[in-house]
Amino acid sequence: MRHLIDRLLGAPHWPSVGLTYALGLAGGFGAQALHLPLPMLLGSLLAVGAAAVGGLKPFGHLPQAPQKIRMVFVPVIGIAIGGAARPEILAEAPRWVPSLLALCLFIPLVHFLGFRLLTATGRVDRRTAFYGTAPGGLVETVQMGEEAGADVQMLAMLQFLRLILTIVLVPVAFSWMEGHAVGSAAGAAVAGSALGVRDVAVLAVAAVAGALIGLKLRLPAGHVLGPILLSAAAHMAGWTEGVPPGWLLAAAQVVVGTSLGVRFAGMPKGRILAALRLALMNAVITIGTAVGFALALAPLTGEPVRAVFLAFAPGGLIEMGLIALSLKMSILYVTAHHLVRIILAVSFVRAFGGRME
């Protein structure tokens, strides 16, 4: 059995993996005790990330969290997001058109501003700055940047830190606006009835089949988008009204946060700090511009300013979806915009990346 598991998940050092997840869980509970926003996600990320940067080696190995374990839990978040779908969403969707069109301006604007800012510092070359400031498509932009001859390590850190900073700063900003921590307790929940056998079966099919279809069709973030679509279809068809229980969503957040934190393992501290300064400057531009677009577009969409802001904030589809779940706000609106954002960001990079010299 162990050989089968190793073949499916790679061959990590399992005692180190267990301790890494235990550290992530402890970080989540610690963040919850401190009433931090989205505690299970941020607490696990910060705890494991700090251990990785500090060079902690449980059982002689750096912190480990196999990414394939993350792939098992991410569909849970997808079916929870899809659980917000109701038939009346079809009547609301046409109001999203102005903000979806505005993304066509927002993406090249923030990318251009970030690119010019980073090149002006003289700390990175033009290729690395261009691919490192793309507001979406972390995996795709790193791959394209590597093929173009960018500094891959710095590029990966810039993109990863963009994601991390957005994940950290957005919940903190919402907590400040709300006057209390958002997403406390399980960190995400949507209304739903108690799960029966049929509900469990429908959600399980949506999670597994959705992930397989999404990956097979190579959809953006297919392992979460597929479950979102199948879960939304099942809820709109009336096959189920259930959503995953809070404890399962909390577990998924710990797995996601831990898998993000371990990516700092083995990175030179000096380069992390340099990339952090550059990524923070870029984050100020992208988040500040997102606020401006939110204020301008909210009256046109019928959505609250904070929902439009969350739809434009350049974090990950999974992580921004979790924040939307925590705040119980326009979940499918936010998700649809992040899907379009990723597609536009990657398309823009592909169209103009060849002009970098």
TrEMBL record:
It comes from the Bacteria. The chain crosses the membrane at residues 12-34, 40-59, 71-90, 96-118, 160-177, 189-215, 222-240, 246-266, 278-301, 307-327. InterPro entries: AbrB_fam (IPR007820). Keywords: Membrane, Transmembrane, Transmembrane helix. The keyword Transmembrane helix applies. This is AbrB family transcriptional regulator. It comes from Albidovulum salinarum. The lineage of its organism: Bacteria, Pseudomonadati, Pseudomonadota, Alphaproteobacteria, Rhodobacterales.
